[in-house]
Amino acid sequence: MDPSTNEDGVGLAFALLASAARMAERIDEGVVRRGFTGLRPTHGFAFAFLAPAGGTVTGLAAHLGVTKQAAAQLVDELEAKGYVRRGPHPHDARARLVELTEAGRACTRAAEAAAAEAAGAWSEAIGADRMGQLRRDLERMAEGGPIRPTW
């Protein structure tokens, strides 16, 4: 099926999903160019969740839409690479707080710079005014939904 000829909204859905996938690819490429290798886009979604104040494996699992076991494996992998650390949770003695290390924060800054670069390319393609309107429209439609991989 050619989504560009479908007038019932499927074409729009395909275009949005393809655009989101391309944006994730460009961010990943920008992160690699900035010296952070051995990571996958999924790691970036975990970093986005953990960046503000850390979180638990259970919270990360819910954020990513995966099992607690899958989230724990992801945290193990990121910990082995030096991007996160586990420590005592300040409010829940049963839980462990997962926080970004300085390397994890540096990678997050690299991803933010790569995202700005990718968005800049979109802005050049459609113009700053249309880009601003597109951002506002998408933010309104997303209604604060989770930012997670579409697996």
From TrEMBL:
SUPFAM superfamilies: Winged helix' DNA-binding domain
Pfam families: MarR_2
InterPro entries for the chain: HTH_MarR-typ, MarR/SlyA-like, WH-like_DNA-bd_sf, WH_DNA-bd_sf
Occurrences of domain HTH marR-type (ranges): 9-143
SMART domains associated with the record: HTH_MARR
Name the record gives this protein: MarR family winged helix-turn-helix transcriptional regulator
